[in-house]
Amino acid sequence: CRDPADVSLLQVTLSSLTALSETDQLGYDEFLRWHLESSLWTHLEVDMGLENTRFFKNARKALAEAENRGEARGEARGEARGRARGRVEGTRETLIRLIAQQLGTRFSLPGAEAIAQMEALPLATLEALALAAPHFQGHDDLTAWLAAH
């Protein structure tokens, strides 16, 4: 590494990585990924024969760790979204079952068409229906309510 411009660039890169790693792990991961994938990095690493230096070995190791952290964050976000969707869907199913039971004990179970209409309702509207259902006098009230909403 004899070219002063290359030495300077390497020093700037190293100091930037060090500062970023101390303050922002996600930013550090992205910065590291960009540098390791850039042609400039390849020039410093391969063309200048620095690929076996401790710095570049550590940088590749840090990139692998960053990718693992990124995968873990992605998996955690996906799992959280899945749990949230499951809770919403479970709530929807419970509300529909509750409404059907309320009406079924007073009149008869709602028909397949009414159930399908309830399944298409947004959760907040379904909650409003669950509150209104005990006041219905018959299936005509359910049909009118669904038509209005």
Question: Can you describe this structure?
Answer:
- This protein is mostly helical and 149 residues long.
- Helices cover 83% and strands 0% of the residues.
- α1 runs antiparallel to α2, α2 (25-37) packs across α4 (54-106) and α4 packs parallel to α6 (123-132).
- The longest helix has 53 residues, at 54-106.
- The model has no long low-confidence stretch (mean pLDDT 79).
Overall mean pLDDT stands at: 79
- Number of helical elements: 7
Q: State the helical fraction.
A: over 70%
Biggest sheet descriptor: none
What value does the Rg take, in angstroms?
A: 30 Å
Question: What labels would you give this structure?
Answer:
149 residues, mainly alpha, 0% strand, 7 helices, single chain, rod-shaped
List the helices and strands and how they pair.
Blueprint: H1 4-23, H2 25-37, H3 39-47, H4 54-106, H5 112-120, H6 123-132, H7 139-148
Helix pairs in contact: 1-2, 2-4, 4-6
Concise summary:
With 149 residues, the chain is mostly helical. It is 83% helix and 0% strand. The chain is built from seven helices and no strands.
